[in-house]
Amino acid sequence: QEQLVASGGGLVQPGGSLRLSCSGATRSVKNYAMGWFRQAPAKEREFVAAISLNGRSTDYTDSVKGRFTISRDNDKNTVYLQMNVLRPEDTAVYSCAAAATPYSGVTYRVRAQYNYWGPGTQVTVSS
Length: 127
Fold this sequence. Notes:
Structural class: mainly beta
């Protein structure tokens, strides 16, 4: 059984928006710092955004700053990635990940720092 489940992907035109959701299937996301990563065809998985355990700190890769927003709702056991002004180069499989950490205000960019992953959701930006 998957521990994290990502949803909300789809086909959108350039300039459009999508909101991805990541829910804990067997784990409560409120106990983890969370991140979103993406992998385009023939490319390495790359960091997109992260949010600290307490939700007060966020971090983004440069290419999505000002367009994407990560947030969390611990009551709903869900982390979100709001993606606006989407570009064709944003096309990828987006996966969420959870990092066990004793530090409530820290975010993580490195894949190895994450303990649990979900299977991902496809985002395609095309006209």
